[in-house]
Design a protein that fits this description.
Blueprint lengths: L5 E6 L5 H10 L4 E6 L2 H9 L5 E8 L3 E2 L1 H9 L3 E9 L3 E4 L10 E4 L1 H6 L1 H5 L5 E4 L3 H11 L4 E5 L1 H7 L2 E4 L9 E8 L11 E7 L6 H11 L3 E9 L7 E8 L3 H12 L4 E8 L9
Parallel strand pairs: 1-2, 1-3, 7-8, 7-9
Antiparallel strand pairs: 3-4, 3-11, 5-11, 6-9, 6-10, 12-14, 12-15, 13-14
């Protein structure tokens, strides 16, 4: 029996790093990509049921957290149902037969340009052009058959758009990873198989409020893997606290969350899910 194709929303276009993360996460499941330019629209198409899931970048080991994306998850009431860590390797792509000496312009997403800055400094005469997506820069060159122009993108972009890698692995930091969240309208039912959670807290403005909430994690032996303050829209200089934690017993996690709720103004579990294969060595 053929499996039904899942409609997966991604930020960017085919052969982008979001596409690569979606393929890695869903594996053998057949998927139909829905290309979305804007992160807010990406969240909206999940909330309105236009896609089954969305894959959304949330943090990078060099660029840090993408704070607005937490806001979109909250605004549209989405649930986090999974995560994927992707090694980001930047390739310099151009039309077949191109030579490095003939390149006059390079284009890519601003983050990709930033992550390849040491390489680019060795070519100060190149014009640097920012575009909305790494894969879009590759497609632009291929469709217009632009000579003397290179793109910075992933290997999948070279394969998809018929370009050649003229210089491989140009990223400055080889430990460059992006964490992607898998989002749905509501949480999955298989919570007993999960071992990670993302939680949002709003605290009272009293001394020790954050400590009292986080002390519960120590009390119940829950491993805090990320903590992030996020501005609350419409409430200047007020912040929600987002954190991720790992647990081994779902019942213990539930008891701990009940206790945290007693110590906070508001607690929302954004999702429970199976933790991804993290590059972090413990």
């Amino acid at each position: 029996m053929r499996m039904k194709k899942l409609k997966i929303g991604i930020q960017g276009i085919r052969a982008s790093f979001h596409h690569m993360a979606a393929s890695a996460y869903f594996g053998e499941r057949p998927i139909e990509l829905v290309e979305i330019r804007d992160f807010r629209v990406l969240a909206e198409v999940v909330a309105t049921g236009q896609v089954d899931y969305a894959v959304m970048a949330i943090e990078n080991t060099i660029g840090g957290t993408i704070l607005p994306n937490y806001g979109f998850i909250e605004e549209f009431g989405l649930s986090i149902v999974g995560e994927e860590y992707l090694r980001i390797s930047m390739q310099l792509l151009a039309l077949p037969g191109s030579q490095l000496a003939n390149i006059k312009e390079v284009m890519s997403h601003p983050m990709a340009l930033r992550q390849s800055m040491v390489f680019l400094k060795n070519h100060p005469h190149w014009k640097v052009t920012e575009v909305s997506d790494t894969a879009e820069s590759a497609r632009h060159i291929a469709e217009r058959q632009l000579t003397g122009v290179a793109a910075i993108a992933g290997r999948l972009a070279a394969e998809t758009y018929g370009l050649e890698i003229i210089t491989p692995d140009i990223e400055t930091n080889k430990q460059n990873y992006t964490r992607f969240l898998v989002l749905a309208r509501q949480g999955e039912n298989h919570v007993q198989e999960c071992d990670k959670a993302s939680v949002r807290l709003i605290l009272s403005h009293t001394p020790g409020a954050l400590y009292q909430a986080l002390a519960v994690l120590h009390e119940y032996n829950l491993n805090l893997t990320k903590i992030q303050s996020v501005p609350i829209l419409g409430r200047p200089y007020e912040y929600a606290i987002h954190f991720d934690l790992e647990y081994s017993d779902y019942h213990v996690f539930q008891v701990a969350m009940d206790k945290i709720k007693e110590r906070t103004k508001e607690t929302r579990i954004l999702g429970v899910y199976k933790k991804g294969l993290s590059p972090i060595k413990v």
